[in-house]
# Entry
Amino acid sequence: MKILCIGRNYGEHAKELKNPLPPEPVVFLKPDSALLRNNDPFYLPDFANLFHHEVELVIKINRLGKNIEPQFAPRYYNELALGVDFTARDLQDELRGKGLPWEKCKAFDGSAVISSFVSIDDLPDLNNINFKLLVNGELRQKGNSKDMLFDVNQIIAHVSKYFTLKIGDLIYTGTPAGVGAVSIGDRLQGFIEDQCFFDFLVK
Ligand code: ZN
# Structure
C-alpha cells in the first residue's frame, strides 16, 4: 500500500506557514514504513530538531481505480480515520530552500500515525466533520472538513490522474492551523467529534 498526503489543504494552515493557497492539491507520498499504529509511541528521531504535529482526517481506499471522476469518487472509500503527519519542520525548510524533495522531512519511520477506522456510513456528513488534537490535555489544533480547500472527492480525482489507487491505500487530507512542536514526554490525543481515536506518547 501507499500513503498519499495533501499539503496546504486548509487556508489558515497555509497562512501560518506563509505559503500561498495552492491552485491544485499539493501531493506527496510516504512509504508504508512510515505508519505508526496501535497508539505506539512516537520516538523522536535524531536527524532534526523541530518535529511538528499535523492532525489530519485520513481516507482509506477500498477499490482499484485510476482517473476517477469526482462524482464517482465516493465509490472508492468507505472508512475514515484520524492521523498525524509528523513533519521535521527545520529539515523541511532546509530542503525547500535548496529545492530538494521532501521525503526526508515527511516520510521517515513513524511519521504517519494512524488510528482505527470508522465507517463513513456512521457519520452524518463527510463534509462537516469536527476533529481536534490535544497535547498534554490542551487543545492545539481543531478543524472541520468543510474548510478543506479540496474536498475528499476532488482529492481522489486529482491524485488518481497520477497514481493508480489500490485497496488499502491511505490519503491524509491535510492539516488545519495550529501545527506545533512536540517534545519527549508529550501525550497526543486525537478526536473526531467527541470520540478519541488515538492517544499516544512522544518518547
Ligand atoms: Zn500534513
